[in-house]
Design a protein that fits this description.
It is found in: Mitochondrion membrane. By secondary structure, the protein is mostly helical. It has one helix and no strands.
């Protein structure tokens, strides 16, 4: 059963995980978002009732 042999894929999996965790992730996290969240409160929605024509 070749899928139980960790030799061919374990090294590739660990290498790709470490590459992502140590190299790619800090580069992605260093970007500044183009639309940062603001502390403004959103306006309250209008609560006027709808006038149905058939009532």
């Amino acid at each position: 059963m070749p899928q139980l042999n960790p030799s061919p894929w374990l090294f590739i999996m660990l290498t790709s995980w470490l590459t992502y965790a140590l190299i790619i992730q800090p580069k992605v996290l260093s970007f500044v978002t183009t639309n940062p969240p603001s502390s403004k409160t959103s306006p309250a929605p209008s609560t006027t009732p709808w006038d149905w024509p058939w009532t």
